[in-house]
Amino acid sequence: MFSSLLRQGRNRRPGTGWRAALLAGSAALILAGCNANDGPSPMSKASRTLSPQTLALLQEKGMAKTSPIVVRIFKEESELEVWKQTTSGGYALLKTYPICRWSGELGPKVKEGDRQAPEGFYTVTPGQMNPNSQYYLSFDLGYPNAFDRSLGRTGANLMVHGDCTSRGCYAMTDEQVQEVFALGRESFMGGQRSFQVQAYPFRMTTANLVRHRNNPNLAFWKMLKEGSDVFELTKAPPKVDFCGKRYVFNATPADPSQRFQAAAACPEYTQPGGLGEAIATRQREVSTRIASAGAQPSAPVKTGKDGGMHKVFLAKLENPELSAPGSLPAVVKPPGSDYGVATNEPAPAESIALANADAVPQAANVPLPTPRPTDAPGAATQVAAAPPAASGGLFGFFSSPSPAAAPASAAASPGTAPAATTGAAATSAPASAPAPAPTRVASVDSGSMGFLSGLKNWFGGSPEPAPAPATEAAAAPADVPVPPAKPSAQRQTAGGPQASSATSTSRRTNSASSAPAAPPQAASTSVVPRPTHPGYGDTSSTAAATSTTAQAQTGSTGAPALRPSVAASSSEALYGTQALPGANILTPGSFSSVQ
């Protein structure tokens, strides 16, 4: 190499001789650093020769050390294959390397940060080989390619490297990546300008596609199978092009002036030697098998394990005395675990079980529901309480009491509620007497709109609500109080209203004589005030309420007839559903950041 660079320098024009000399000197420095395999140079690990065992295997399979290579990766099986061209011209499998770790789920990489390792066809050039990697040695896969970019996929620096740790990469042991790196280096020295990497979710067999038939990536994987079939049929890496946002293999445009463009429609093209028909036959077989799969078991769409690890490394984590292809770092994070395990002692049985499981259930990150608006049906409401004793005057007379927070011991049954105190006069009823009128739920006509409520009470509306009693703590939740029972109003006769309520005497003295008498009601019915939509006050409806009236007059504390949106007890859920506890839903998990 050094002598050829010097010859090139002598053949150049005189004005460019100094550039050739500088290039030759740089090459000499690099070669000097590479020659010492075990020296202090940082390039020594990248220039180490292939082992005698690998050289013997090459000779046995009829492969030259510098012949071209193809790399094939299978996620689900956690295997990386190196294929090499033989002396006959076809490609044959040289070695299969177990992958120590890969991250994400089966499926392509879509965006930066999704922890997905790429799937597809990629090209590695000498410039993508990194001898100074933080993970011993590495080579960049070249993601995103033209197909990925046509779909708007993002991400960078997706590698095959050492150190058995992955954030979107395919991680090997240091010894493994050193040999793969050396095979690629030798192929470049033999004249190969780039080598192809075929990254698959699994071995592209019909049975595997049927097993993963429920995965949303099935159409993408069937397209990758076309490239895999071309490789198997021709025993050579396929020529890969992109058009119509898809892959095309070994295709030639019918019009030589046209070109394949990933984001443009595909031109008419041909494939040699009946290759297209052979690929179509295999695709039809897959479709037929999937259509007839029926209730056959299928693989989970997501495992929640964040990638995989070959079983040989899992066995070594379980028993460090076993041998493995290469050394492991001091701490390794097995699939399915959210913590690392030491590699110099047996890993916990739980970690091994999670790594070997088909799927790992994880708690979903379900946010708590947002609070309901105060005017929404079923939302938390406040019960109107008695006004302060000091309130009075004209507006105090017309206004209704403002809602006030009742003490913790004030939420007893309505049958023991004392009579309310008004601004004009205060009259108390025995603690055991039933409430004279249904307790109203505060809405827009209470609080700052008390004037409207006062007018309603003045012209014959419902009497003032009773204050909450000061005994027996409530069992209902604080944020959704259970409304008290609503006893029906006293039945009126033709002679006028009955003066049975001591609480309404002082408030309605002037209006009782002028109020028209209610028409007589049937003995089996009574006028039951019924709350409607908050903000529209109380309305009355006639309903058969004989039993309800009897319970209300005797102070019965049976479960009241409530609106469908209000729970009758603390254990009953609103709208017939169980209350969400927060984050107890178990679903298959997902993943987070990527390198």
UniProtKB/TrEMBL annotation:
<comment type="similarity">
    <text>Belongs to the YkuD family.</text>
</comment>
<protein>
    <recommendedName>
        <fullName>L,D-TPase catalytic domain-containing protein</fullName>
    </recommendedName>
</protein>
<feature type="domain" description="L,D-TPase catalytic">
    <location>
        <begin position="69"/>
        <end position="200"/>
    </location>
</feature>
<feature type="compositionally biased region" description="Low complexity">
    <location>
        <begin position="469"/>
        <end position="479"/>
    </location>
</feature>
<feature type="region of interest" description="Disordered">
    <location>
        <begin position="363"/>
        <end position="385"/>
    </location>
</feature>
<feature type="compositionally biased region" description="Low complexity">
    <location>
        <begin position="497"/>
        <end position="526"/>
    </location>
</feature>
<keyword id="KW-0133">Cell shape</keyword>
<dbReference type="InterPro" id="IPR038063">
    <property type="entry name" value="Transpep_catalytic_dom"/>
</dbReference>
<dbReference type="GO" id="GO:0016740">
    <property type="term" value="F:transferase activity"/>
</dbReference>
<feature type="compositionally biased region" description="Low complexity">
    <location>
        <begin position="539"/>
        <end position="559"/>
    </location>
</feature>
<feature type="active site" description="Nucleophile">
    <location>
        <position position="169"/>
    </location>
</feature>
<keyword id="KW-0573">Peptidoglycan synthesis</keyword>
<dbReference type="GO" id="GO:0071555">
    <property type="term" value="P:cell wall organization"/>
</dbReference>
<feature type="compositionally biased region" description="Low complexity">
    <location>
        <begin position="376"/>
        <end position="385"/>
    </location>
</feature>
<feature type="active site" description="Proton donor/acceptor">
    <location>
        <position position="161"/>
    </location>
</feature>
<comment type="pathway">
    <text>Cell wall biogenesis; peptidoglycan biosynthesis.</text>
</comment>
<dbReference type="GO" id="GO:0008360">
    <property type="term" value="P:regulation of cell shape"/>
</dbReference>
<dbReference type="GO" id="GO:0004180">
    <property type="term" value="F:carboxypeptidase activity"/>
</dbReference>
<feature type="region of interest" description="Disordered">
    <location>
        <begin position="462"/>
        <end position="572"/>
    </location>
</feature>
<dbReference type="GO" id="GO:0009252">
    <property type="term" value="P:peptidoglycan biosynthetic process"/>
</dbReference>
<feature type="compositionally biased region" description="Low complexity">
    <location>
        <begin position="405"/>
        <end position="434"/>
    </location>
</feature>
<feature type="region of interest" description="Disordered">
    <location>
        <begin position="405"/>
        <end position="441"/>
    </location>
</feature>
<keyword id="KW-0961">Cell wall biogenesis/degradation</keyword>
<keyword id="KW-0808">Transferase</keyword>
<dbReference type="InterPro" id="IPR005490">
    <property type="entry name" value="LD_TPept_cat_dom"/>
</dbReference>
